[in-house]
Known about the structure:
The complex is a heterodimer. By secondary structure, chain A is of the alpha+beta class. Chain A is built from 7 helices and 4 strands, in the order ααααβααβββα.
Amino acid sequence: MLSQENLNKVEAIRGHYPDSKAALLPALWIAQDQEGWISTEMMSYLGDLLGVSHAHVLGVVTFYTMFIDKPQGKYHIEVCTNVSCLLRGSDGIMDTVRKCTGAKPGETSADGKFTVSEVECMGACGGAPMIAIGEEYYERLTADKLEAILKQLA
Amino acid sequence: MEKYILPEIPDYHTLPVYEQHGGYGALKKALTMKPEEIIDELKKSNLRGRGGACFPTGLKWSFMPKGTAIPKYLAVNGDESEPGTFKDRMIFELNPHQLIEGILIGCYAMGITAAYVYIRGEYGKWVTMLQKAVDDAYAKGYIGTGILGTEFSTHIYLHKGAGAYICGEESALMNSIEGGRGLPRIKPPFPAAFGLWGKPTTINNIETIANVPLILNKGWEWYSKIGAVKHPGPILVGISGHVTRPGVYEVPTGVLLTDLIDEYAGGMLDGKKLKALIPGGSSTMILRAEHVPGVTMDADSLKAAGSSVGTAGMIVMNEDTDLIRVITRIAKFYYHESCGQCTPCREGTGWLWKILKRFETGDASLADIDLLLDVANNIEGNTICALGDAAAWPVQSMIKRFREEFEKRVKPVQALAV
Ligand SMILES: Cc1cc2nc3c(=O)[nH]c(=O)nc-3n(C[C@H](O)[C@H](O)[C@H](O)COP(=O)(O)O)c2cc1C
């Protein structure tokens, strides 16, 4: 299920810890980067690989909000609506995201391009309002700036 | 003031520039000292943790067992998920080697052979930045086996979280490193006795560790004279909300909150008036504008004002702010982040949010104010970890200091038909 290259990565990371269970979060990240999401089959595979129960892997995947257990759009747009962003206009940012993608939080746009999530503080409060698309942060947003960013990806 | 945690030197994040400015000199010095001398130096410096609780760092390090062959660990906390907090990210980006140097000094002083830096999952880009610095430091022999030709060996590994505020709580953090869900552990046993994999472990915040090389380089006397006497040193203050120049500012502790707003952050946005301020991340108690003058950014002053330093993430709110909306959003956060282990927190955080929404929509009754206090008081102090307190304090303080905001949002009582 993991590519040979990624399998080698997991093997190397195992050596960072005295116990291979600890390699689970890193292995889940590697799997998610490879596939875009983490399937039940992948969870069982990683459980077997690291010697932890399938139930444990499922428990971990569902505990952490960033592990995704179903396929999603090409771009994952995460909109922060916590206090600092709220104070600087995250309502308008959410409206713009909805207008440009047609998707509400929790939905994927009809063309499959964008999945939208409302998320908690991402640690960029000085740049509020902000969103993340994948690993990239977009800070000090205005409706115009955001529209331009989303148009480029559409 | 000169900057010590985020110096304004171009390319300071690269190893050659860091070395040109004396980087890794503190490590070299430390390696000539006895471990207890280093811990003593830290104790005398009065460095206190920057992760929220202001715990004295030297004292914490002294709890680690000495002269034992069992493995010991350092976990460095870069989970940084308390709303309003965005300072550790600047260290990963602008001064990663000072963090690495501090980690190495800590490992040497406590006899530790492996350190784990826990970084929140959203900071993927910053994980990459710090990994680059770690790789460069390995290549130069600062990390690894036989460091700088001595007997001292240690490793530094980065561990990326995956979206869970609770993993910033030190025992949840250890469970997350071990490959589990981030559930806090009951204390005692304390981490210095039973931490990662049941072995002695110290947990420190990123910024705390970044202060360590300074103290070794310049001495405890110098350090202890910066800022507030009982809580000295440089501190990174994150300012967000209704100010002209939000951002992270390095200041000596003891700076006036009004100076932070007016001098550093360029004053209130659009010249509006201050209404309220949360001084140290969303869990710290809110202050009314009229109580802000004279209060300074340090443990004693903020305690006297009825709040705390927390993470020094200051959220500034102007006269137009709907505080009911603010507190409802904060309550939703703690409800979302409760791990669910303890009943008062799992159920209580949901109740706080639900009742607060009634105020938001104008459906609350006057009795709901007391109900909120009742729920909050029953969470506080009744949970394994401090997330419960963190959920209760904002609600309690908002009612105590802005009761009129709640009263204004109560549904008018219908006249009873006779
Ligand atoms: C719910 C919760 C979340 C926390 N999040 C963080 C965090 O993100 N970063 C941090 O350094 N400390 C956090 N803490 C505090 C840690 O438990 C711990 O006190 C701190 O990392 C110790 O470091 P210090 O002594 O250097 O301050 C959190 C505590 C609680 C209760």
